[in-house]
Amino acid sequence: MKSSTIALTELRSRIVSANFYPFKPGQIVGPRLPYVHIFIYITAGAGIMKIGEEAWPSEQGDLFYIAPGVPHQFIAKQEDPMVHASIYVDLISPSTPKLKGDTQLNVNDASRYDPSLCATRVEYSEGFVIPVHTRLPHNAVWMEPFFSVIETYFNQSLGNDLLLRSHFESFLVRYIQHTLKPQNTFYDPRIVKMLEWLEETDTSSANVTEWAERLGISTAYLYELFRKQTGTSPQTYLLECKLDKAKAYLRETNMPVTEIAYRLGFSSLHYFARLFSKYVQETATQYRQRFRGFG
To answer: What would you measure as the largest C-alpha separation in the chain, in angstroms?
Structure first.
């Protein structure tokens, strides 16, 4: 397997594929071997990720890195199959002849794997190592360039490949900075209590002034504490709680989508549908059919 030691500033990334993939309930993909570097973020649902000799329970917020030639396997949860966002990249292009849009970026049969097509594995002269698995803070803002790669991947405009490189390297640098920074695992009990309240019922409110009064702190300080320990705002956290409840209703009941939206306090079906599609990367009807059709 080819390998090279470079400084971070010597990256010459080239995106060869990027997409969202919703797994079917209980679906198993792999084991397989990749020809390029893969970054996978779980955007919804849950399952198991096997990479090399290790396995991790995976759920929303998990980010995985798979180096070229490393065997990996996906096992989607039956009750709530995961959706992942993935980026396939040659980090020091052109170290592989694989081009953008190549549909043979993984091989399921190890005997058919061709090392000459494999991208170069990378070690960094600064001494850091990109972890295979990282649990990211809730709604990390610095993940936005990662999703920008996927959103603009199919754009054929002049210079788009340079734009993809810019988005990806912006994400990668911030990700590396995150992994090198000591993580604060302490949770303020007031925020823990608030999270329990927000998750408790369908009719929970994100009235921050009301929560601040309950907790005996100022609204500004509540915002600061909440964002520091969850990575997002109370409003965004509550919205995602409601969308997770919507997923459960779609999987476990025959309740019409309109009734689900009303029960969870959305102002209109259109507003609910737009937010759900953005959050899960498919419509509510498609989500229900994916579960019911293959359960």
So the answer is: 64
Residues 40, 281, 148, CA angle at the centre, nearest 5°? 60
pLDDT-derived band at 295 (thresholds 50, 70, 90) equals very low
Distance between CA atoms of 292 and 251, rounded to whole angstroms?
A: 7
Helix segments in the chain, DSSP class H: 144-152, 160-180, 189-200, 208-215, 219-230, 234-252, 257-263, 269-280, 284-294
Residue 75 confidence class, pLDDT cut points 50, 70, 90 = very high
Take residue 117 and report the two structure tokens written for it: 């097509």
- Contact between 25 and 79 (Cβ < 8 Å): yes
Best CA proximity match to 231, nearest among 178, 170, 173, 171: 178
Do 11 and 93 form a contact (C-beta atoms < 8 A)? no
pLDDT(294) > 50: no
CA atoms within 13 A on the CB side of 221: 8
Is the C-alpha dihedral spanning 91, 94, 100, 105 positive or negative? negative
Predicted model pTM: 0.77
Q: Which of 100, 87, 66, 74 is nearest to 22 (CA)?
A: 74
Q: Is 68 helix (H, G, I), strand (E, B) or coil?
A: coil
C-alpha–C-alpha distance, residues 152 and 18, integer Å: 9
Whether the Cβ atoms of residue 284 and residue 273 lie closer than 8 Å to each other:
yes
Helix then strand then coil, in percent of the chain rounded to 5, is 40, 25, 35
Strand, helix or coil for residue 15: strand
